[in-house]
Automatic annotation (TrEMBL):
<keyword id="KW-0378">Hydrolase</keyword>
<keyword id="KW-1015">Disulfide bond</keyword>
<dbReference type="InterPro" id="IPR009003">
    <property type="entry name" value="Peptidase_S1_PA"/>
</dbReference>
<feature type="domain" description="Peptidase S1">
    <location>
        <begin position="101"/>
        <end position="355"/>
    </location>
</feature>
<keyword id="KW-0732">Signal</keyword>
<keyword id="KW-0645">Protease</keyword>
<protein>
    <recommendedName>
        <fullName>Peptidase S1 domain-containing protein</fullName>
    </recommendedName>
</protein>
<feature type="region of interest" description="Disordered">
    <location>
        <begin position="55"/>
        <end position="77"/>
    </location>
</feature>
<dbReference type="InterPro" id="IPR001254">
    <property type="entry name" value="Trypsin_dom"/>
</dbReference>
<comment type="similarity">
    <text>Belongs to the peptidase S1 family. CLIP subfamily.</text>
</comment>
<keyword id="KW-0325">Glycoprotein</keyword>
<dbReference type="InterPro" id="IPR033116">
    <property type="entry name" value="TRYPSIN_SER"/>
</dbReference>
<dbReference type="InterPro" id="IPR043504">
    <property type="entry name" value="Peptidase_S1_PA_chymotrypsin"/>
</dbReference>
<dbReference type="GO" id="GO:0004252">
    <property type="term" value="F:serine-type endopeptidase activity"/>
</dbReference>
<keyword id="KW-0720">Serine protease</keyword>
<dbReference type="InterPro" id="IPR018114">
    <property type="entry name" value="TRYPSIN_HIS"/>
</dbReference>
<dbReference type="InterPro" id="IPR001314">
    <property type="entry name" value="Peptidase_S1A"/>
</dbReference>
Length: 358
C-alpha cells in the first residue's frame, strides 16, 4: 500500500502529528516522510491539512519547496499535447497523393483527408444548397474546416457566429457528385465554440472549434491535420503553402464550385499584410495572431466559400499536413493578399478545449 501525500498537509516533526504518533504506537503505516528536524523524523501530517483537500499518490508529487510544503505538478507546456497527438496520428496515417499543384486546380480523393465541409440548415436561396445527405437531410454548404482530432474541427469564428452547422462532411471531393471516387461521411455537430475575443467587425481572433457528436474513424479519406508549435513563424522566405476549399473560382456571382480546389501560395511580408488590412482593425493587425499569403503571380487565392479552411504545409517525415492558418478574409480573389488567422497564436486555447489537462 502506497503512503498518501495530502497537497495541503504540513511537514512537521512526527512528535507534533497526532495521527503519526498513533500510527507509530500501533505499528501502522506512517504518513509520508518529508525529512528530519535534528534527529526527529518529519512527516506530511494529514491532521493539519485543509478540510477540502483530497489525497494524491506520493508518486505524483514533483518536489518540495524550501519550507517543505508540497508542490503540485506543473501544467503541461503549451504545444506539448498537440505535438504528441501529431506524433500519434502520424504513426497510423494513410498514404496521400500529389502535393503542391498551383493555380487552383481540382484535388483528388484522399489528397486532403483533413478537409471538412460545413453544412447548415437548408436554404434554397443559397447557390450551393440542396445536396441530399444521408437519411434524407438537406444542408446548405457554406465554409470549410480542418479535422484536427477524432471529435474536433477547426474553422473560422465568422462561419459559426450566427448559426451553428448541423452537420460536417468529411472525405469528400465533389459534394455534387457520387462518382468522384470519394467516400464521404456526415457527422452531426454537438456544439461550436468561438474564441472569446472574436470581433466580427475587425475579424480579430477569427477562429473557432466544432465538436462532433461521434468520433471520426480515421481512414485514407478521413484523417487529421497537425497544429504548429506555439509562436511558430510560417513567414519563412520561399516556403510553399497550400490553400484548399470549395469556394468560388473567381470573384464573380455564381462562380462557386462543388469541387475541392487547391492552390499554392507564399507567405507575404507582414508589413505588406498590415498595410493591406490596416483599416479593418484599430492599431493594425497583430503579427502573432494573423498572417497573409498570396500567389506571387496573382493567379490563385482563397475565395468566398473557402472561409474557415486551412492554409497548410506538409509535416516533415509524415503523411499529414500542418494547418498554419485559417482562411479569414480577402479583398477580391487574387487581387490582394488573403488574410489568415495564424494558428500558432492560438495553440494554448485549442489545446485547453481539444486536449484538456487531466
Amino acid at each position: 500500500m502506497l503512503s498518501q501525500v495530502w497537497p495541503s498537509s504540513v511537514c512537521v516533526p512526527i512528535t507534533e502529528c497526532p495521527s503519526g504518533l498513533k500510527a507509530l504506537r500501533n505499528r501502522q503505516q506512517l504518513p509520508s516522510r518529508c525529512g528530519f528536524k535534528g534527529n526527529v523524523e518529519k512527516v506530511c501530517c494529514p491532521d493539519l491539512r485543509a478540510t477540502s483537500a483530497k489525497p494524491v499518490p506520493a508518486g505524483q508529487v514533483t518536489s518540495t519547496t524550501e519550507n517543505n510544503s508540497v508542490k503540485r505538478r506543473s501544467p503541461p507546456k503549451v504545444g506539448a499535447r498537440s505535438a504528441e497527438a501529431c506524433r500519434k496520428y502520424s504513426k497510423s496515417a494513410f498514404p496521400r497523393i500529389g502535393l503542391y499543384v498551383k493555380n487552383g486546380i481540382e484535388a483528388g480523393p484522399g489528397e486532403f483527408p483533413h478537409m471538412a465541409l460545413l453544412g447548415f440548415k437548408y436554404d434554397k436561396d443559397l447557390q450551393n444548397s440542396g445536396r441530399t445527405l444521408t437519411k434524407g437531410v438537406n444542408a446548405s454548404w457554406s465554409c470549410c474546416g480542418t479535422l484536427i482530432h477524432e471529435r474536433f474541427v477547426l474553422t473560422a469564428a465568422h462561419c459559426v457566429e450566427r448559426e451553428i452547422p448541423i452537420v460536417v462532411r468529411l472525405g469528400d471531393v465533389d459534394w455534387n457528385s457520387d462518382e468522384d471516387g470519394a467516400q464521404p461521411k456526415e457527422f452531426a455537430v454537438l456544439r461550436s465554440e468561438s474564441h472569446p475575443e472574436f470581433n466580427r467587425i475587425s475579424l480579430a481572433n477569427d477562429i473557432a472549434l466544432i465538436e462532433l457528436r461521434t468520433q471520426v474513424p480515421f481512414n485514407w479519406v478521413m484523417q487529421p491535420a497537425c497544429l504548429p508549435a506555439p509562436k511558430e513563424n510560417q513567414d519563412a522566405l520561399g516556403q510553399d503553402l497550400l490553400v484548399t476549399g470549395w469556394g468560388d473560382t473567381e470573384f464573380a456571382p455564381l462562380s462557386a464550385t462543388s469541387m475541392l480546389m487547391k492552390a499554392s501560395l507564399r507567405a507575404v511580408d507582414f508589413r505588406v499584410c498590415n498595410a493591406t488590412y490596416a483599416g479593418t482593425q484599430a492599431g493594425g493587425l497583430r503579427q502573432e495572431k494573423q498572417m497573409c499569403a498570396a500567389d506571387p503571380k496573382g493567379l490563385a487565392d482563397a475565395c468566398r466559400g473557402d472561409s474557415g479552411g486551412p492554409l497548410q504545409l506538409k509535416v516533415k517525415d509524415s503523411q499529414l499536413m500542418k494547418v498554419v492558418g485559417v482562411t479569414s478574409a480577402g479583398q477580391g480573389c487574387g487581387s490582394s493578399p488573403g488574410l489568415y488567422t495564424r494558428v500558432s497564436g492560438y495553440v494554448d486555447w485549442i489545446e485547453d478545449i481539444v486536449w484538456p489537462s487531466k
